[in-house]
Structure formats: C-alpha cells, structure tokens
C-alpha cells in the first residue's frame, strides 16, 4: 500500500487508535465485525469499487456501509464510515485497510487484558513451529481445502494453547488468507504488535540456530541501522541453505545461498 492509500490508512489509524484502546476487551467485537466487512468487500467487486470510488460523495457511501453493518457496534460503524470516506489508490486497498483495523482491534483487546506480550510470543512460536512444515503451510494457503478445515487445522496445531486473541488471529489467518502465505500474515500481525509496543521486530531465517551472542550482535547492528530498539526473532528453516534472511518491517536483507543462486540464474538468463 503506497501513496494516497497509505496516508488514508495512517489517518484512520491515528484517529481510532484511542477509540480501540478505550473499548478495552470490547474491541474484540469490533475486530470481528470489521473482519466480516473485509469478507464482504473481498466477495463483491462491485461493492468494493463503489465504496472505494473517489468520485462518489462520502455521505452516501457512509450510509451504505452503515446499512451493511446494521446491528453492529456503533464504533465499528464509525470506523467503517471513516474508511469508505477516505481516498484509496486502488479499491483493494480499502479491503486491506479494513482488515488491518480489524487486527488492530483484536490487539487492542489483548492490550486491555494484559496479554499483548503473550500474543506476540505465541505467534512467533507458531511461526517457528511451521518452519520446515512445507505441506502444512501449503494446506493453509490452498483454496482447494475448505476455509473451516484450514481453521480447524490451526485449532489442532494450537491444541488450546495460547491466549484467546492468539487463537483468533491464528484461525483468521487460515480461514481468510487473502492471497498471502499463512506465516506472512502472522509476521504482519507481529509487526503491528511491535508498533504498539514502540519497537521493531526483525525476523531472521537461518539454516541453523544462532548463539545468544550472535543474536545480540545482530540486534545491536539492526538497532543502529534502523534507529530504534530491535527484538530479533530467529526462525530455523532447513530450506535456507546458508546465510541469513532478515526482515524488519518492509526492509528485507537476504544473504542466503538460495538468494545468491537465484541472482546468478537471473544474470545468466539476461
């Protein structure tokens, strides 16, 4: 998401972050209702285009989304109306922004009950557990399997462990992947938690575990480069033949052998 869409999303987030925090544990309901709106936008191109059309006045669009959310929490309706009255570079960005606010609402509920740090740890543990589980990751992405079956698989993987918000986020990522890899969605949510906790999270893919001193050194280097405190989460992935792949927000530093081989192939092909 870039340009106009990014500015619109940031404005809506800035306006409603205090509202979500004030909602406390009720923010969970707001999140569920915004996910329902995301699903409606994804399932209807005409609805998405209408609500994102910059040539249409905001008042009718606000009225339409209020009718769609009839019976929903008033704060959900207010957030949705702010979204459809904003300007978007592409209609798909409206759905992405709605989903982003839905995840933020779930995280606000975790912040309210004091479990936000645990949600972060739970999601990282799940991400780490899926490293090397290629068939499971493929199943969680494939439309060939029913959404509920994918959600049930995540429930079995968690086996009742983790917080309520952890389970909600993990299941949502499986039921509605929206074209993203399962782990990618978990990492996006992890980044959102880091923002709420005012720090950066760097996810490091490595073929073998890093020592504590290596992890600390990497955190120090990344912190100086990014200008803020960095927490390094190391994921051991056998598919990484050598080197490291570091992702901190949108920034990716890929020094793996596989990456270098891919670069060599592109140069030969060119």
UniProtKB/TrEMBL annotation:
InterPro entries: ATPase_OSCP/d_CS, ATPase_OSCP/dsu. Keywords: ATP synthesis, Cell membrane, CF(1), Hydrogen ion transport, Ion transport, Membrane, Transport. It is a peripheral membrane protein. It comes from the Bacteria. The keyword Signal does not apply. It is found in: Cell membrane; Membrane. Its main location: membrane. This protein is part of the stalk that links CF(0) to CF(1). It either transmits conformational changes from CF(0) to CF(1) or is implicated in proton conduction. F(1)F(0) ATP synthase produces ATP from ADP in the presence of a proton or sodium gradient. F-type ATPases consist of two structural domains, F(1) containing the extramembraneous catalytic core and F(0) containing the membrane proton channel, linked together by a central stalk and a peripheral stalk. During catalysis, ATP synthesis in the catalytic domain of F(1) is coupled via a rotary mechanism of the central stalk subunits to proton translocation. HAMAP family: ATP_synth_delta_bact (MF_01416). Belongs to the ATPase delta chain family. This is ATP synthase subunit delta. It comes from Cellulomonas wangsupingiae.
């Amino acid at each position: 998401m870039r340009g106009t869409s990014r500015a619109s999303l940031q404005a809506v987030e800035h306006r409603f972050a205090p509202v979500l925090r004030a909602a406390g544990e009720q923010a969970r309901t707001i999140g569920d209702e915004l996910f329902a709106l995301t699903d409606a936008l994804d399932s209807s191109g005409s609805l998405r285009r209408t609500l994102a059309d910059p040539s249409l006045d905001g008042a009718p669009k606000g009225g339409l989304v209020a009718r769609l959310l009839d019976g929903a929490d008033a704060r959900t309706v207010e957030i949705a109306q702010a979204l459809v009255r904003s300007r978007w570079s592409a209609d798909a960005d409206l759905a992405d922004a709605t989903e982003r606010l839905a995840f933020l609402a779930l995280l606000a509920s975790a912040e309210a009950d004091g479990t936000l740090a645990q949600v972060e740890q739970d999601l990282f543990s799940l991400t780490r557990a899926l490293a090397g589980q290629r068939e499971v990751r493929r199943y969680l992405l494939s439309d060939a399997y029913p959404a509920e079956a994918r959600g049930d698989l995540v429930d079995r993987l968690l086996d009742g462990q983790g917080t309520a918000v952890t389970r909600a986020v993990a299941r949502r990522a499986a039921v509605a992947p929206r074209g993203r890899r399962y782990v990618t969605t978990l990492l996006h949510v992890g980044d959102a938690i880091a923002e709420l906790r005012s720090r950066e999270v760097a996810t490091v893919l490595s073929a073998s575990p890093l020592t504590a001193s290596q992890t600390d050194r990497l955190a120090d280097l990344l912190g100086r480069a990014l200008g803020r405190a960095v927490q390094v989460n190391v994921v051991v992935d056998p598919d990484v033949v050598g080197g490291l792949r570091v992702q901190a927000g949108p920034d990716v530093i890929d020094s793996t052998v596989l990456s270098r081989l891919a670069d060599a192939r592109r140069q030969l092909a060119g």
